[in-house]
Amino acid sequence: MVFVKLENLEKSFGSIVAVNNISLEIEEGEFFTILGPSGCGKTTTLRMIAGFYKPDKGKIYFDKKLINRLAPEKRNIGMVFQNYALWPHMSVFKNVSFGLEMRKVSDDETKSRVNSTLDLVNLGDFGDRTPDQLSGGQQQRVALARALVIKPDVLLLDEPLSNLDAKLRVEMRTEIKKLQKSLGITTIYVTHDQKEALAVSDRLAVMGLGKIVQVGSPLEIYTKPANKFVASFIGLINLFQGKILKVNETDVWIKTNAGLDLVSSSIRNVKEGMEVIVAVRPEHIEVHSKDFSSEKGNILNGKVEGIEYLGDLSRYNIKTPYQIINADQYSPSVEKSFKLGEIVGISFEKEHVHLVEVT
Amino acid sequence: MERLEGLKDWMLLRLQILRSIDKFSFFLILIAAILLSVFVLFPVFSVVLNAFIEPSGEIGFQNFVNLLATPSYRRGLINSIITASLTLAATTAIGLPVAYIMTRFVFRGKKIFTLLTILPLMIPPFVGALALVGMMGRNGIITNFLQDFFMWIGLNVSLEEGLILPNIPGIVLIQTFHLWPLIYLNTSASLSKIDPTLEESARNLGSSGFTLFRRITLPLALPGFAAGALLVFLWSISDLGTPIMLNFTDYSVFQAFSEYTIQGGYREMASVISIILTGISALVLIFVNKYVGLKEYATVRAGAAPKSIQKSISRRLNIIVVFFLSILVLLSVIPHLGTVVMAFTEMPSYGEWVPQGVTLEYMARALVDSNTSLSILNSLVYSLLASFAGIFLGASIAYLLVRKRFPGKSILDIVSTMPFAIPGIVIGLGFLYMFSQPLFGNFRLTSFWYILVIAYSMRRLPYTVRSSHAVLKQVHVSLEEAATNLGASRIKTFTSITLPLIMPGLVAGAVLIFITSFTEVSTSLILQPIIGPFGIYARPLTLQILLLAKGGPTAVRIASCLGFIQIIVTSIGLYITNKLLGGKAGLAFGG
């Protein structure tokens, strides 16, 4: 198990800067995710760690050891490729035993290690099959077994679930997470799926345009997005652009550019007159019938323009005089639901209004 | 100053790319560059040069002027173009309907016809021509049969001269016999790849019948048809075997051939004709590439699509389809039957058409006679070596093209596909011009049999590059990376991952070179080395067949026996490639 450190990594392809001066520290045994939209440089970063790309600048350390110049075959990294890269001309057993063969492990040990790893991924009886006889999920498990059997120092996963259907994706990510925790391997996981990233990671880094935008625990990233990009990339969010009107010890008053007055109790270190972007998550916005009243927090009226019923919640698209606001209603029922075109009241408490960015 | 800076940047960039190439690839590039220069570029260039060297020794267009001023050459050129166009029209008229029927209809007997329709590919065109002339020429069995038939029904037609005459229709007929499957196979490859939902969505939007065919189906199938049509046209215009067999002298390739080899080494006219033919081929190739496009349309597909668009047809239509295909297959096997009849039966006397019993005498003579048996052995050796050399070079070039970035890559791509559009006669003449000078003492490269091995492998280089290219593309880089990642060295990755995956494609490519070399006509006839691998008899099989075919009746029968051997070898080779490539061998096959 090792500690991975990236220092000022840079990589360009022609005139395109894929990775722009990034630094990261990944703890021993940590499940670390690099999250970002396609083309943000996350896969490039992963491939530099694997050794398939040479960084233009910067350093990669495993523990204290600089590995920039180490050939990919010497790094003892387990990698799961997006397309699994199973060799079609070899059986499942041969695919998994290949890495051990390269390490000149004895036949007996190879056999027992391959079998126990296949058991670990619930494919104990599949050794004799060829990859084309397996389902997508099974292929994925073989790829995982092939990477794990060599007892790698680091496990790299490049969008491993993107080729699976939605239900299997959820199952597999739970399984991967469980395996990783029981084996304690330092793991770097690359994905563009924010739900996946939040679900599996100990910590994650959000990347955009070749740069790291924010690093933190899933909870930190979700509740305290560092800027507009992170806020809108992770989950759904209502953004308000405006100016600070007044500041006291506990509260901050903001007037949005559209004229809406907001009050927040979670914003610190701002001054009157600052241009800011603040945000409220839809799950923190309550929807009421139009004649409700309340004394605290933020209240306004609007018209229901769209409804998405998602089972555990209903998401309302509400048009207010200022802007469209998304609000979630949990455990919706026939009696409690609102109708399309209905005028409703919405409210959110001042502690849920967060500062995203000072512009 | 600014320009200098720009130049410096450019050179730095080039240097950077050059540095990024590993030593092994650099070595491959070097070898490919040398071989392609010496054996493709220089010979072609020497033919071009000779076309512009006037009799007086100066450089100019005089040879072209002389050519156009000579009626027989002018006629030859026009005849060549007309022939190629007519052959294309005839093969299209047969190949297109067959492609549509075979890909779109479900009918009784379809499986058998799928097999039977590739029969023409099994017969080397040269042998086919020999058999057709023998069967349908003057006093041929079919000619005599029809003559009797016409007499019987009271039709007063004289078939004294035969059904196939040394004229344009004769050439077109023989070429069509051999070439129509190229249109059929290429078009049906395109047709069967069309995603059924594309047509379904057009129907859904209200289009049907001929409109649907014209607006959706045809444009989607066009690239396949264009590829087939291109093969047919290029094949026809550079065909040397058929006019020689028919003795049709008003034909450009034949004229170029006899100018140099028979008339005693006049380079000017042979070169000028060859260059004009190459120019026509190149123009057609460029035209097709630009206006039709040879690449398949990539179909974006999300989710599963219904597998087949094939529909059942009515019983009446079934009968018509089977009747049409049966006639076609019956006609298509005339060359095969003809070869067997001429090789293994006692021929009827003049004017008769019933063979007089079976004989193995001629086959025995073909196998015992030292010259004919040596020619068989020679061709086996030449083709085997050519396929090894060809696949090695072809696979190396394909590897560089698929996996590496380096300066001059596009040049390598172009030069290695050049022989595709260059008539065999140009390669043949170029080799003669380049390598018939004594090198040291009295040593001439063209005196030795190796020259044929080199010529064969260079002629077929585009096929091997293409077949290797295709298999290499299928091996995703991540398959290799996964091995490297697990600790395999470069060499180990290559031997345990890449090689086993591309092997079927490589072997299929090698077999394809083998059979095309075994039956190769133009370079076999032009280059006539003296010293062979088994002593002073270097003639390849095809040349032996030609010489015998021009001899007396017995010699023609022995020629047919040799032709029969070529059919057997070709069939076995096609069977192997079909197994390896999954039924697509005919696509790469151009004679």
What keyword list fits this structure?
heterodimer; A: alpha+beta; 6-stranded mixed sheet; 5-stranded antiparallel sheet; 20 strands; 23% helix; 35% strand; B: 591 residues; mainly alpha; two-stranded parallel ribbon; 26 helices; 2 strands; 72% helix; globular
Describe the structure in your own words.
- The complex is a heterodimer of chains A (359) and B (591).
- Chain A contains eight helices and 20 strands.
- Chain A has helices at residues 42-50, 92-102, 107-120, 136-148, 166-183, 194-200, 218-223, 228-233, and strands at residues 4-13, 16-26, 31-35, 57-62, 65-66, 77-80, 154-158, 186-191, 203-208, 211-216, 238-247, 252-256, 261-264, 275-280, 286-289, 298-309, 313-319, 324-330, 343-348, 354-358.
- In chain A, the strands form four sheets. Chain A has a six-stranded mixed sheet with strand order 6-7-8-3-9-10, with helices on both faces. A five-stranded antiparallel sheet of chain A has the order 13-12-11-14-20. A five-stranded antiparallel sheet of chain A has the order 15-19-16-17-18, with no helix packed on it.
- The relative contact order of chain A is 0.12.
- With 591 residues, chain B is an all-alpha fold.
- Helices cover 72% and strands 1% of the residues of chain B.
- Chain B has 26 helices and two strands.
- Chain B has helices spanning 2-20, 23-52, 62-69, 71-104, 110-116, 125-136, 141-152, 168-193, 196-204, 209-237, 241-246, 252-262, 267-291, 315-332, 334-344, 361-368, 370-403, 409-417, 424-435, 450-459, 461-474, 477-485, 490-518, 522-526, 541-549, 553-581; strands spanning 105-106, 311-312.
- Chain B has a two-stranded parallel sheet with strand order 1-2.
- The A-B interface holds A 50-52, 71-79, 81-83, 85, 87-89, 98-99, 102-103, 146, 150 and B 476, 478-479, 481-489, 492, 496-497, 500-501.
